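Researcher: Go.
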Amino acid sequence: MPKFCPNCGFALLPEAKFCPSCGNQIPDVKLFPEETKGSSQAGFSETELTFPFAVKNKEKIVSNRALILFVVFAVAAYLPFVEDTGLSGMWAFTLIGAFGALASLIVFFIFRSRAKKMQSLISGEQVLASWQLDQDLKSAYVDYLFSHEQSKNKMTFSITAILIAIVFGLFVVFVEEGKGVMLLVGMALIALIGIFAFLMPRFYRSKNLQGDGLVLIGEKFAYINGFFHNWDFVLSGIKKSKVIQEPFYGLFIQYFYTDRTLTNTEELHIPAPREMDLSFLVKKLKK
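Model: Structure:
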């Protein structure tokens, strides 16, 4: 049976706590109906979801650590100016400390902003929809990510390895001195990139398997199985959102953002229980 906002009459998802149209709080609405012991609804965990969500704000943890590093580097940059410290006059420490302090400060501000956005999801303030993946959906999601990242990394590695071979090969052919060294350097680069390309998908697969299976969708950011995504930067936003049937039933979000490498595109394939109607969520994201 459909639910509607008592304030403005806007159609709501079954688990809505706030009306996305007028912002009115929806009282006494559980995200999912209570189930008797031993019963299950395909795609749903038996864990009851309530506001605020029991999720660690990892973005805040990173920002706090960056602030600590800023203090450490700032002290290191200052010590060479102090006499009888053992580092007096060692200006290399000042240079390293200043660079480290600046980098740490940038990371702090970036992740502090992300932490605030993540907190708005945890509190339920910016949540349009939320659900808990059961083990089968979570496994399907993790396997898809692993396969996708592995294929992408194989292609990237192949192209990079060919370019390195061409550049260093030309050096070996046309330059008399240092051929052996350049050959070894080229081979080492290919090996290093290969290790990164083939091990990182396995690392992320392990991290995703340890994820909490929670999905929180907002208009400008989302939390999926332990990872935070946002598309609220300047010159960024959603390009496409739709309901998908393959590789699993769920929500597809394609968003773009602009940085020093110009425009980048990211795609999210988010599994959802088949009993969940995602059409309203797609319309809301397209606005």
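Model: Residues 138-209 form one domain.
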